[in-house]
Specification:
The complex is a heterodimer. Chain A folds into two domains: 104 residues, Rieske Iron-sulfur Protein, CATH 2.102.10; 279 residues, Alpha-Beta Complex (Naphthalene 1,2-dioxygenase Alpha Subunit, Chain A, domain 1), CATH 3.90.380. Chain A has 15 helices and 23 strands. In chain A, the strands form four sheets. In chain A, strands 13, 14, 15, 16, 17, 18, 19, 20, 22 and 23 form a ten-stranded antiparallel sheet that branches. A seven-stranded antiparallel sheet of chain A has the order 3-12-11-6-5-4-7. Chain A has a three-stranded antiparallel sheet with strand order 1-2-21. The model of chain A has no long low-confidence stretch (mean pLDDT 96). Chain B has one domain: Nuclear Transport Factor 2, Chain: A. Chain B has four helices and six strands; from the N terminus they run αααββαββββ. Chain B starts with 11 loop residues before the first helix and ends in a 14-residue tail after the last strand. The mean pLDDT of chain B is 93. Classes of the chains: A alpha+beta, B alpha+beta. Chains A and B meet through strand 7, strand 14, helix 6, strand 20 and helix 11 of A and strand 2 and helix 4 of B.
């Protein structure tokens, strides 16, 4: 200890894989604090992976744009004149100035405020002041368009990657990722409500991510939210009816599940009967999903009332009414962006009711989320000390006590008590991503969900 | 009246106030300011239950989301009522926040934050019956644990109604924060 070896660490494949041991659940705390690991994450996870940009409803008309991020790279996501959506790096090819400084808006083109270079909505360089005079006509505009990220979408959710060799979004998501996104649309088309809540927490981004699988903390961390009368822990936690679904590349869904016998009964009902049953339920109980949801989410996924994480950093909250992006801002800071989703077809009053309820759940002033940030920031802080980081973290709950099942759509899932299978899977996948040289290496060498006793 | 403009004299609603003599206006200004200072002192002293006693049952307590937009889009800078907001509370929601703080398990406020509520630039915009609309600047300073420091600065529009033990009840508070990305781990604070 304290011999300088940790400071001089070079992260080769073996040393990265040693940071998390899936067999024991032991996590090296440097994963949460080391600046050189953070730099590697920006390249090997964020630049390489598919990052959530926005939902289609956020770009209503041609010229509508918003700023999103791939790691710490700012991306302009914009709908062009033909309706096509582009992901453009928000940096002028001349001197690197940001083209958009507003976080959203509507543009005919993007003009740099430094020297007036002008780019089309598809990123092409259209105009350069003084091209004929100062540049003597000697500038190849066709080579100086804005850098573009690849962009693809699933169910209206746009994702972008900086990796030309990344597999298609559909394959990257796999069954688990697609089920997670489908949870949002299980009752039909959705739209993002006006306004994204944004705040900064002094924590490593992965602590915020792994917490979403953590149904163990709810009665203790959020005891005061229970005492406030806002919600009852007993009605949301279901400690004995839990499902964790694990997918390739680190996607996972964890949380309460509708037991198989109950789902079998639901499956026999018509959509009208399901709606009737939903109306008869207690307030805030999740609405029963229609028949069509089974097709979208699979026969096991449709039972989940848990939290999907689209690896690395997009959390879909229970029942898909909110989503949260956890954007890395250095090893010890994370920006949280909260989106509220409402059914597109709902009457305005119903939309307002949903938004109002959601305004009180998460976000910095949310009755639940107020409690989380300090736990995460203190856990991050302790990972910076020499002695603290050597202690490791014990993600051992449920290890060796559960059995992996495989569903009809090839989904891998565990049913049982509250566990830390989701957290372990996140860090297992993290070591895969971090130790792979490129996509070919990652595709060849990433873990498949385990089978048998897990 | 969420406006920076002073009410125009020809507005019926504002007429009585605009026509009021200076001496009388000074009294109202004094009364209102004393109420705002009393309220701030209760919050700084963590007397949340007593603070609740200053609120009208029909209170509307709202902090919209602010966004960085170009001047061409400035009307979209704040979200509108019914859209996403940080605070979107009625009396029942505010009581929940107080109950949460009283629970003994609100970990993000235990050890308790040290906060100071400053109110300044108070301008009475209108007096209508027993209700007074005012605009003020606020500065809430909070420190926590060893080194956590948060500052929230902004403009707010309050409506107070004559009544209650403190002379007024708070009927409406609309908070327009001067941050777009909230630079804090949470807003477990009452503004």
């Amino acid at each position: 200890m304290a011999d300088g070896a940790q400071v001089a660490q070079v992260w080769d494949k073996a040393s990265i894989q040693a940071l998390f041991d899936p067999a024991t659940g032991w996590l090296d705390r440097r994963v949460l604090s080391d600046p050189s690991l953070y730099q590697l994450e920006l390249e090997r996870i964020f630049a390489r992976g598919w990052n959530f940009m926005c939902h289609d409803s956020q770009l209503k008309a041609s010229g509508d744009y918003l700023i999103s991020y791939i790691g710490e790279d700012q991306i302009i996501v914009v709908r062009d004149e033909d309706g096509e959506v582009h992901a453009l790096l928000n940096t002028c090819r001349h001197r690197g100035n940001a083209l958009c400084r507003a976080e959203q808006g509507r543009a005919k083109s993007f003009v740099c405020s430094y020297h007036g270079w002008n780019y089309g909505l598809d990123g092409r360089l259209l105009g350069v002041p003084g091209l004929g005079t100062f540049y003597h006509g000697d500038l190849d505009k066709s080579r100086l368009g804005l850098a573009k990220a690849r962009i693809e979408s699933y169910l209206g959710f746009h994702f972008a990657t900086l990796a030309p060799d990344a597999p298609p979004l559909h394959d990257f998501l796999g069954v688990t990722g697609r089920t997670g996104l489908a949870m949002v649309c299980a009752h039909g088309d959705v739209e993002v409500a006006e306004g994204v809540q944004k705040n900064v927490i002094d924590c490593n981004w992965k602590i915020a991510v792994d917490n979403l699988f953590d149904w163990y903390h709810v009665p203790y961390s959020h005891a005061s939210a229970d005492a406030s009368g806002f919600f009852e822990v007993a009605k949301i936690q279901f400690p004995k009816n839990q499902m964790v679904m694990l997918g390739e590349y680190g996607h996972a869904i964890g949380g309460p599940v509708i037991p198989r016998e109950m789902q079998d009964q639901i499956d026999r009902l018509t959509d009208e009967q399901r709606e009737e049953m939903s109306r008869a339920q207690q307030e805030n109980a999740p609405r029963i999903r229609p028949k069509s949801a089974t097709e979208l989410m699979g026969s096991e996924g449709v039972r989940s009332q848990g939290h999907p994480n689209i690896f690395p950093n997009l959390w879909v909250t229970i029942s898909g009414t909110q989503m949260c992006l956890r954007l890395p801002r250095g090893p010890s800071h994370t920006e949280l962006w909260w989106y509220t989703l409402v059914p597109k077809a709902a009457p305005p009053a119903a939309k307002r009711d949903i938004i109002r309820r959601m305004n009180h759940v998460f976000g910095p002033a949310g009755l639940l989320e107020q409690d989380d940030g300090e736990n995460w920031s203190q856990s991050t802080r302790s990972a910076r000390g020499v002695a603290g980081r050597e202690l490791g973290q014990a993600l051992v709950m449920g290890l060796g006590h559960d059995e992996m099942r495989v569903g009809a759509s090839g989904e891998h899932y565990i049913e049982g008590l509250i566990s830390e299978h989701g957290q372990r899977w996140l860090y297992r996948a993290w070591t895969d991503w971090m130790s792979a040289r490129d996509w070919a290496d990652l595709q060849a060498n990433h873990a498949q969900p385990p089978t048998g006793v897990v | 009246m969420d406006t920076l403009e002073r009410p125009k004299p020809d507005e019926t609603r504002a007429k009585t106030w605009a026509d009021t003599q200076t001496a009388e206006r000074a009294v109202v200004q004094y009364e209102v300011e004393q109420f705002l200072y009393t309220e701030a002192a209760l919050l700084d002293a963590r007397r949340y239950r007593d603070w609740l006693g200053l609120l009208a049952q029909d209170i509307e307590y709202w902090m919209p989301v602010r966004r960085t937009v170009t001047s061409a889009d400035i009307d979209r800078e704040f979200t509108k009522p019914g859209e996403v907001a940080y605070f979107d509370d009625d009396w029942a929601y505010l009581e929940m926040r107080v109950k949460k703080l009283e629970a003994g398990s609100a970990w993000s406020e235990d050890p308790p934050s040290r906060s100071r509520h400053f109110v300044s630039n108070v301008r009475v915009l209108a007096v209508e019956g027993d209700e007074i609309t005012l605009e003020a600047c606020f500065h809430v300073y909070r420190t926590r644990l060893e080194r956590d420091v948060d500052q929230w600065v902004g403009r707010r529009v309050d409506v107070v109604r004559r009544g209650g033990a403190a002379g007024f009840l708070l009927v409406k508070r609309h908070l327009f924060l001067d941050q777009t990305v909230i630079q804090s781990t949470n807003m477990s604070t009452i503004f």
